[in-house]
């Protein structure tokens, strides 16, 4: 049976905050009691809500985000991803792009000392999970509101969908690497000191294929944003992790153009786009002290977001049978959509 990476030790007791007794309103508990429930990846259970699956600890934040978020019509940027699609990387790049006038020197940049998840909080996890109506104006690092979400397009708050100037950037990653990355990640977060132990790759694979992975089904998540990006290209930009790895500079230019702030000839001449690419590269980010030894807002170690950062690591884990099955599902789900990996 495959086991998680040796170089990624499990968390040891005491349990991090996110796995301790969950504080939840009665309203949320009542809602959860009505939902289909299955075995969770990190916590014991996940729940199906509006067609997608959520770990118990995220339910309250999901509902509050949907209910209360108001897009700031002129400037908001929403980064959307399936978990493990490269969220941390997209956050770093977007933050650096949007704030490049404010922090022109990449040798003295907030990303060198602050983890991207603090600079760009995830709405339903970092903000709405803590307060029903959080203060969204207190991020002193960024000059433009910049948030992220794992919610599928269909579940986004109306104001985020309806406001034409609230830009959405979606980053997608091939399902096999997404699954393998998610499996490693969840095993780092699971309470290893309890009898639940590690999640086997076989079980993770089975749950992923059935669609019951956090914020999944994976394919429905991807297709929701893919369709919107085709219908409203000025509103939703669809990026692929694999293309970003292959051509980071070209994709950064695409992103800057989409956000309405292309690199000027002067910036190009100065090598600004290269500097940002280097700053946000996997090796650079992974070796920063804050990302090696720091902790996130939920008590998780920042180094769990920097494992291999490669395309095709699935080859080291999935069996031929698993590959065949996952490829077949992906082909069926994406058939006729124009989307392929
Ligand atoms: P999240 O959705 O929970 O925030 P996310 O950042 O999407 O997590 O997942 C981390 C993945 O992105 C890891 O992939 P792996 O498990 O296959 O290694 C991580 O290594 C990768 N990653 C993080 N930072 C970068 C980066 N700067 N460049 C490329 N890949 C990165």
Specify the CATH homologous superfamily: P-loop containing nucleotide triphosphate hydrolases
Structural class: alpha/beta
Overall morphology: globular
Could you estimate the helical fraction of the residues in percent? Answer: 40-55%
Name of the level-1 CATH class = Alpha Beta
**What is the CATH architecture term?**
3-Layer(aba) Sandwich
Strand content: 5-15%
What strand order characterises the main sheet?
5-4-6-7
If you compute it from the alpha carbons, what radius of gyration comes out, rounded to the nearest whole angstrom? 19 Å
Average of per-residue pLDDT values: 91
Bound small molecules, by name, code or SMILES, are: 3'-phosphate-adenosine-5'-diphosphate
Low-confidence stretches: 1-19
Largest beta-sheet details: 4 strands, parallel
| Terminal-residue CA separation | 28 Å
Number of helices: 16
